[in-house]
Design goal:
mainly alpha; 11 helices
C-alpha cells in the first residue's frame, strides 16, 4: 500500500530545495493518504506559506492558512502549527488572531505537554509580536526566558531561535537608544549564525549582525 509518511517528508525536502510545485504535489498526496496526520497538513501548510511569502501570492497564503487549520483540527496542541499560522497573521498585520495563536504556542512550549515532537521558538515569535506592538518590557521578559532555555536544548532549530532571540534583543535595545547593548546582541547573533551556516535563516542574522 502507498504510505503517507514518505510523501510527507518529500514535501519538506522539496520545500527546502525550493521545488515548491513538487512539494505541493507531495503534500496533497500525503494529506489524501492520511487526512488525520497533523504532520502531513503542517508540511503542506509550511510549503504554501514559504512559497506564498516568496512570491507574494495571496491565494497560496490562503491555502497555507487552510492547511494550518486542518492541522489544528487534527492536533489541537500542535505547537508548530500555532507558530506557523500565528506568524502568517503577524506578517499580514492581523495582530489580534496572531496574539491568540502565539499565546497557545507559548503555552504548549512551556508545558511540554504535546503528543507530537517537542519544538522551540514560540517564546521568540511572541516576543517579536510584542516588539511590533511597542511592548518592550514584555518582549524583554520573553526573550530572557528564551535565552535561558534555547542554548541548552537539544533541538535542530535551537541555534536558529537562539540567534533570533539575540537579534530581537538587539532590536529592543536599539529602540531604547541603548546602542552599545544593541551592537552586542546583534554581534552575538551573527557569531552564532556563522557557527551554524547550514541552519535555516542564519544568513539573515549574519547580515543583520
Amino acid at each position: 500500500p502507498d504510505l503517507a509518511e514518505p510523501h510527507q517528508w518529500l514535501t519538506y525536502a522539496y520545500c527546502r530545495l525550493e521545488r515548491h510545485e513538487d512539494a505541493e504535489r507531495a503534500g496533497l498526496r500525503a494529506t489524501s493518504l492520511a487526512p488525520d496526520s497533523t504532520h502531513a497538513h503542517y508540511m503542506l501548510a509550511a510549503n504554501r506559506h514559504i512559497q506564498g511569502m516568496r512570491s507574494g501570492d495571496r491565494e497560496r497564503l490562503q491555502g497555507a492558512a487552510e492547511s494550518y487549520l486542518h492541522a489544528v483540527e487534527v492536533e489541537p496542541i500542535g505547537q508548530t502549527t500555532y507558530m506557523g499560522l500565528g506568524w502568517l497573521f503577524v506578517v499580514d498585520g492581523q495582530y489580534e488572531p496572531a496574539r491568540r495563536l502565539l499565546d497557545c504556542a507559548v503555552l504548549v512550549e512551556r508545558s511540554g505537554l504535546t503528543r507530537e515532537m517537542k519544538f522551540v521558538g514560540a517564546l521568540a515569535l511572541r516576543a517579536g509580536l510584542h516588539l511590533r506592538e511597542g511592548e518592550l518590557v514584555d518582549a524583554d521578559r520573553l526573550l530572557s526566558e528564551a535565552l535561558g532555555r534555547y542554548p541548552s536544548v537539544d533541538h535542530v532549530y535551537a541555534p536558529a531561535f537562539t540567534a533570533l532571540s539575540l537579534a530581537l534583543m538587539g532590536e529592543a535595545a536599539y529602540r531604547r537608544a541603548e546602542f552599545d547593548a544593541a551592537i552586542g546582541h546583534y554581534g552575538r547573533a551573527a557569531d552564532l549564525a556563522a557557527q551554524h551556516p547550514e541552519r535555516l535563516a542564519m544568513g539573515h542574522h549574519l547580515i543583520r549582525g
